[in-house]
Design a protein that fits this description.
Blueprint: H1 68-72, H2 158-162, H3 275-281, E1 346-349, H4 369-380, E2 385-386, E3 403-404, E4 414-416, E5 420-422, H5 425-431, E6 436-439, E7 453-455, E8 477-479, E9 484-486, E10 493-495, H6 517-520, E11 523-527, E12 543-549, H7 552-556, H8 559-570, E13 586-592, E14 596-600, E15 609-613, H9 635-648, H10 660-673, E16 677-683, H11 719-730, E17 732-738, H12 746-749, H13 751-755, E18 760-762, H14 768-784, E19 787-797, E20 801-807, E21 818-824, E22 829-835, E23 845-854, E24 860-872, H15 875-880, H16 884-898, H17 904-925, E25 935-938, H18 944-952, H19 965-975, H20 980-987, E26 990-993, E27 1018-1022, E28 1026-1031, H21 1037-1044, H22 1065-1080, E29 1086-1091, H23 1097-1102, H24 1116-1131
The structure holds zinc ion (ZN).
The site of zinc ion has 8 residues, from loops.
């Protein structure tokens, strides 16, 4: 096992590839020395133990399974179809097998040896959005704070009109459905609902001009009357459609490395009271103050914490840092020397100390996220992180670092909760530390890192273990002079196919080891053969189909106009692998309300033709030829169509929509074209029109907080789950852009996107002028982003552990194969592992994640990520090699998913309990003896309490009264495929004081608490979904002039959505920072200016997650005390 060896990286393929072209690499090394020289045909095979058989032909590998099995979902579930290699008894559950291997109808080893592995091109289209990635992580948060929309912004009373609307037009061709639609159920209460999807819609009513058409008897005349489209594509008002796609972030910021080295991890700076004192007084210290947020029950059980303050114990607390203007509170004094040289491992947090004069626990005395982030940045950003050392914990996601792949996958692809896992299930159970990996298989890398190389073994396909089907990787041990290899996962010995033979050097390594990515790197790709394709047929390039809701709300909000205008430009930026070439992705267009309108945009037509399908009960595709087209061929017709759509529906009175039939139509179109693809749905309302998948308004706020709350997150019916299965089988990925003005049942509408690897975007109270920028940036990124189609992911592990649970946006028809109709560069799949046997400290544990997918050019590929971790028999080793950010990512996904079946309170209690057990186990088994009154946290996990509290307080688990059910469902789905960097900023936003923005560095962040804000300052808060610019009431005039162009606080317009472009260095730098933050996130963050003491400040304060929340969430200080109490109970 060469895992620990660092292969010299002098390989010929060592340079990052600039373009996407795929230069095939020159033949490696020339000859194949020795008796096995250039094989051009079968050679003797080396059968294990058996007489030398004539295993001819390449992959002696797999038995033949038709790929079609995969489609049926039962791929590889059975025991590995082994053949001759069955000599060894299978030690592992039959878990593993490849996605499929079709019949091996190869006639012989592929002759062209010098295989080419061109640098992996793809996956990196458009601008490189990863530039500067991982910079300071800002946390990413979701939308969801609780707050009510400012009173002045009343949501449109949309239901009012929908209630009366008769069918707005009759259609020409298909008489079918013609019956007037029944009036929509009076269900939708029109009252302004506090939906919240972000910032409240400015001060005006969402649709200025909107009010539903006045008292309406709707004219029954239809805006259009039939198939032939009007031929006057009047130019729409020209929106700016300059191809500005997500420009690469200009600023590659580097963070100041200036933070004082955390030599002796200071967790706590307060005076250390005598332990006994701490012990005796602990319970009440923290919470003399009303530690229990009054209004709602909080998770914190009553207890000692509620004792009244001890007289005399508390006095004023340390002066706040207001006025410090950005100065972080000083580094905290060190303490608790590291017990393990070289690692700052154990830190003890002296219990909340009752210094005689303290009124409450000093926030500066408890672990500071900022300090941890800064320390990691100072220590780990200067040197590249090399992956050659097994079990090495990577830098935090907030640290800007470079990665060198030396045999394990980069942390940008795989992050683990622990890098030294317990040898036994008992130990694992005792510690309660989750064993999981957050995998982002197609992650984009920063420009200075090499993308995974492409390995092409020609017709022979990838080399694999005979038994478990693991792919060739650095963990395979070559033996018998290189003629066979032993699998690192299952130990089975497999013959090396003749064409792959190579001699070993004196250390037992193949002499070509460093020249082959699959022998020396953690991540690489194989070109898959036809055996890995559905029905043994090479795939067609994918198609994109755009479905635009043209009902009343959609048109009035401006959405239809914006989408049509933007698509004209965007179609030039469809994904492609070679930037020089045209995209091969074909496109199609449909508009709909309660009927669907398909468009024939064949290049030979002078004008597009519309085909209306009004019988939505059994959706079919009314045309084949001319529906899916190549953009360049049909450009004129498409542009004409996109010009005409907004006009055709400008006067629509139709308020009802369908949804299920829309997806069905896309699915039918892809089936007919025999390709995979993505559907883009731009949708505005609850689909109440009579049709399959029709929904009713079931929002019931009374259920919130009850045991029945979970039903709000479950889909209304099984219709969409069934539809998802069909979509996945076809490789039909669905992305949903929602523009709701009221409840739309995100929990149900999101089922298909979430099951197909798609995304949901939500723009509540969409207003063209306010939200256009955010929507268009999201759309541009979504259309252009590198992605794979019709994917299947399998995670193999070495003996002793196995993948048992998966989280993310995908579908599983068996227990091992993660099926993704689409998998883009932003999506993660989180995998939980459990023991099924004892592990060995000597060999560690291995994991291999293989994703089979179709690229945007239609090539079938396999991306492989390998990861090796250590195993330990001492719990202390586990606690020294954990990654808290990843643990929080896992816990939050676990908790959010649990909401489907478990009462929210139970979910919260379980989380608290598990974390308390983790910390109690550490205290009991690893910490040096000390007073029970001291709270002692493992160094690696000292932020577990603060981050856990953020998860518990999130809108999903503890919503404020103004957080809608849709918002919660949306955030729940959003989190399920977040990577660690995104979940970090989502739960713990990044708060930057805007001082001295000079040079390339960023100011050091401050903790998320109101007391860290200075009235004289201006702060930028990044939540991952939003950016807030908080302006203190006494902000310096010069600062205001530099940013806003006015020195007067009162003249700042809180409704601005972008900062004025002023010609001064401060303004330029601030806008650069904002741009670079945006470029690091998968969704565009809208900027909101919040003036101190304005109403909107409530929203902003919601993200100050160390403070008590308006919805009853505990402050960090209070929660830490609560955790301490829990831990003590467990220990006693
Ligand atoms: Zn194996």
């Amino acid at each position: 096992m060469n895992v620990n060896q660092q292969p010299p990286m002098a390989s010929p393929y060592g340079q990052p590839q600039p373009g996407y072209s795929q230069p095939s690499y020159a033949p490696l090394g020339g000859g194949y020395p020795g008796p096995y020289g250039p094989y051009s045909g079968p050679a003797t095979a080396y059968q294990p133990g058996a007489p030398q058989g004539s295993a001819r032909g390449p992959p002696p590998v797999s038995t033949n399974q038709a790929y079609s099995q995969y489609a049926q979902g039962d791929i590889q579930n059975g025991p590995p179809p082994m053949d001759h290699s069955m000599a060894q008894p299978a030690q592992r559950p039959p878990v593993c097998q490849p996605y499929s291997h079709g019949a091996m109808n190869l006639s012989g080893p592929h002759p062209s040896y010098p295989q080419q592995y061109g640098v992996q091109p793809s996956m990196q289209q458009m601008t490189n959005q990863m530039s500067g990635m991982q910079v300071g992580s800002g946390p990413l948060t979701s939308a969801g704070p609780g707050y009510a929309p400012p009173p002045s912004s009343e949501p449109p009373i949309s239901a009012a009109y929908s209630a009366a609307a008769p069918p707005s037009y009759t259609q020409a061709p298909h008489p079918v459905s013609g019956a007037p639609s029944q009036p929509p159920p009076p269900s939708e209460p029109a009252a302004p609902q506090p939906y919240y999807d972000g910032p409240p819609p400015s001060q005006q009513p969402p649709f200025p001009s909107s009010a539903p058409p006045p008292s309406q008897p709707f004219p029954s005349s239809s805006p259009y009357s039939g198939p032939p489209l009007p031929a006057n594509p009047g130019p729409l008002q020209s929106l700016d459609n300059s191809p500005s796609h997500l420009a690469p972030s200009p600023a590659q910021q580097t963070f100041p490395n200036s933070a004082p080295p955390p030599v002796s991890q200071a967790l706590y700076s307060g005076p250390l009271p005598p332990p006994d004192l701490a012990l005796s007084h602990l319970p009440c210290i923290p919470c003399p103050v009303p530690c229990r947020p009054a209004p709602r029950p909080t998770p914190l059980p009553p207890g000692p914490m509620q004792q009244p303050p001890q007289p005399g114990m508390h006095g004023g607390y340390p002066t706040q840092q207001n006025g410090a203007f950005g100065q972080p509170r000083g580094p905290q004094p060190g303490y608790a020397g590291p017990q393990y040289p070289g690692q700052q491992n154990y830190g003890a947090v002296p219990a909340p100390t009752p210094a005689p004069t303290q009124k409450r626990l000093d926030p500066d005395s408890i672990p500071s996220p900022i300090q941890v982030i800064e320390d990691d940045r100072a220590n780990k950003s200067s040197e590249p992180f090399t992956t050659g050392v097994k079990g090495q914990t990577p830098p935090l996601v907030t640290t800007n670092f470079q990665v060198k792949d030396q045999g394990n996958a980069s942390p940008r692809f795989v992050r683990c909760t622990a890098y030294n896992i317990p040898c036994t299930a008992d130990m694992a159970k005792q510690s309660q530390v989750p064993l999981a990996a957050v995998i982002k298989p197609l992650a984009m890398l920063p420009p200075d890192e090499t993308r995974p190389y492409m390995v092409d073994h020609g017709e022979a396909g990838p080399i694999r273990c005979n038994r478990c089907k693991a792919y060739m990787c650095p963990y395979m041990q070559f033996i018998e002079g290189g003629r066979r290899f032993q699998c690192g996962f299952c130990s089975c010995v497999t013959d090396v196919p003749p064409h792959y033979f190579q001699h070993l050097d004196h250390t037992g390594k193949r002499v070509d080891c460093c020249d082959r990515p699959e022998l020396s790197l953690g991540s690489y790709e194989f070109v898959a053969t036809v055996d890995y394709c559905k029905n043994n047929k090479l795939p067609q390039p994918p198609s994109f189909i755009f479905f635009i809701d043209v009902s009343y709300n959609a048109v009035k909000s401006g959405m239809v106009n914006i989408v049509c205008q933007e698509l004209k430009t965007l179609l030039d930026y469809l994904p492609r692998e070679n930037p020089e070439a045209d995209s091969v992705v074909r496109v199609g267009f449909v508009t709909y309300n309660k009927v669907l309108h398909f468009y024939n945009v064949k290049s030979s037509l002078a004008q597009p033709q519309m085909m209306v399908v009004s019988d939505v009960s059994d959706m079919f595709l009314p045309l084949l030829d001319g529906f899916l087209v190549n953009v360049n061929d049909s450009r004129m017709v498409i542009e004409s169509l996109l010009d005409q759509i907004p006009e055709m529906f400008a006067d629509t009175r139709e308020t009802e929509t369908v949804f299920g039939p829309v997806i069905q139509a896309g699915l039918e179109a892809l089936k007919a074209a025999d390709c995979a693809g993505k559907l883009f749905l731009f949708h505005s309302s609850l689909p109440i029109a009579e049709a399959p998948g029709k929904l009713k308004n079931r929002e019931d706020k009374k259920l919130v907080g009850t045991d029945k709350e979970k039903s709000l997150f479950q889909p209304q019916s099984g219709f969409y789950s069934n539809l998802s299965k069909e979509c996945v089988a076809q490789g039909c990925c669905v992305d949903l852009f929602l523009f709701p003005n009221q409840y739309v049942d995100v929990a149900t509408l999101g089922v298909v996107p979430v099951s197909t690897g798609g995304s949901v975007y939500k723009y509540t109270y969409f207003q063209a002028e306010m939200d256009r920028e955010r929507f268009l940036n999201d759309l541009r990124r979504d259309v252009q982003k590198p992605m794979g189609f019709d994917a299947v992911m399998r995670v193999r592990t070495s003996t002793g552990i196995r993948a048992t649970d998966f989280f993310g946006s995908f579908f599983m028809s068996n227990t091992t194969d993660v099926e993704l109709a689409g998998l883009d560069c932003d999506k993660t799949v989180t995998v939980e592992f459990r023991h099924d046997d004892k592990l060995s400290e000597d060999t560690g544990a291995l994991m291999q994640c293989a994703v089979l997918y179709t690229s945007c050019s239609g090539q079938r590929r396999l991306r492989v990520h390998n990861m090796a971790v250590n195993c330990c028999s001492q719990l202390a080793d586990l606690y020294r090699n954990c990654e808290t950010d990843t643990i929080i990512n896992f816990f939050s996904k676990y908790a959010y998913r649990s909401l489907l079946n478990t009462p929210t309170k139970t979910v919260r209690d379980t989380l608290v309990n598990q974390c308390a057990q983790i910390l109690a186990c550490y205290r009991k088994n690893c910490a040096s003896p000390s007073s029970a009154g001291q709270l002692i946290l493992p160094e690696c996990m000292k932020l577990l309490p603060v981050y856990l509290n953020c998860v518990l307080k999130s809108d999903v688990l503890q919503p404020g009264a103004d957080v809608s059910v849709d918002d919660r469902a949306y955030l729940r789905q959003l989190l399920s495929c977040m990577d660690v960097s995104e979940s970090h900023v989502f739960f713990y936003p990044r708060l930057l004081p805007l001082v001295k923005l000079d040079g390339g560095s960023l100011p050091m962040a401050v903790r998320n608490s109101e007391e860290r804000l200075s009235k004289g300052g201006v702060y930028l808060l990044e939540t991952g979904l939003y950016l807030f610019l908080w302006v203190g009431a006494n902000a310096q005039q010069e600062l205001l002039s530099n940013i806003f162009g006015t020195p007067t606080f009162s003249q700042i317009d809180p409704n601005m959505t972008s900062l004025p472009e002023l010609d001064n260095p401060f303004s330029q730098r601030l806008r650069e920072i904002i741009d670079s933050f945006r470029s690091q996130r998968s969704r565009y963050m809208k900027l909101m200016v919040v003036k101190q003491e304005d109403k909107a400040e409530l929203i902003f304060k919601h993200f100050l997650c160390e403070d008590k929340s308006a919805s009853g969430g505990a402050s960090y200080v209070d929660f830490l005390c609560h955790m301490h109490k829990e831990i003590r109970q467990l220990l006693s």
